[in-house]
Amino acid sequence: MTSQSIEVGFVRLDPGVPLPRYAHHGDAGADLAIAEDCELAPGERKVVGTGLALVLPDGWAGFVHPRSGLAARSGLTIVNAPGTIDSGYRGEVKICLLNTDRHTPIRLSRGDLVAQLVVQRVDAVSFVELDALPDSDRGAGGYGSTGGVAQWLGQSTQRTETEVGK
Ligand SMILES: O=c1ccn([C@H]2C[C@H](O)[C@@H](COP(=O)(O)OP(=O)(O)OP(=O)(O)O)O2)c(=O)[nH]1
Ligand SMILES: [Mg+2]
């Protein structure tokens, strides 16, 4: 099965910025560059422009994801990951970067490919208020109801039965 190719128009608000590009055929994310130099102190976040504005077709949206390599190596991530680009948005695509490292600053240069844009089809739904929900296998179980393997060293934030409802 071949994947569908959808045209996404864009304008370079800053003529020098690299185009979004898929590094390999079959990649889900097209790498996105930043249009300015920036430095992030440990724990610091900054909104940085890409110098690009997009026209996503109606019924599609863009999602700005972090890049795994930068995240693992330096702790660089995106605060609101994935950032949502609405099809009607005509402004500059911006990235809300965050240095999650507690000790080391991150220095980035204009043109660095710091994020990736995943373009996906999205359905608009009608929200319908109901009197009750139908049963399901999962029910209301969530937030660890199926167990987990991480060793948690902090204090429990789960409220006891007597606290619930206070
Ligand atoms: O990482 C992001 C996230 C959002 N946007 C732009 C495009 C998007 O269409 C618009 C609004 O984003 P969102 O709906 O996430 O933010 P909001 O805080 O709800 O703002 P608004 O009230 O404008 O919807 O901001 C970006 O450029 N980068
Ligand atoms: Mg919004």
Automatic annotation (TrEMBL):
Keywords: Hydrolase, Magnesium, Metal-binding, Nucleotide metabolism
Class of this enzyme: hydrolase
Listed GO biological process terms: dUMP biosynthetic process; dUTP catabolic process
Substrates-to-products reaction catalysed: dUTP + H2O = dUMP + diphosphate + H(+)
Region of interest: Disordered: 147-166
InterPro entries found in the cross-reference section: dUTPase, dUTPase-like, dUTPase-like_sf, dUTPase_trimeric
Pathway annotation from the record: Pyrimidine metabolism; dUMP biosynthesis; dUMP from dCTP (dUTP route): step 2/2
Pfam families, A to Z: dUTPase
GO terms of molecular function: dUTP diphosphatase activity; magnesium ion binding
Enzyme Commission no: 3.6.1.23
Main function: This enzyme is involved in nucleotide metabolism: it produces dUMP, the immediate precursor of thymidine nucleotides and it decreases the intracellular concentration of dUTP so that uracil cannot be incorporated into DNA.
Family: Belongs to the dUTPase family.
Protein name: Deoxyuridine 5'-triphosphate nucleotidohydrolase
Taxonomy of the source species: Bacteria, Bacillati, Actinomycetota, Actinomycetes, Propionibacteriales
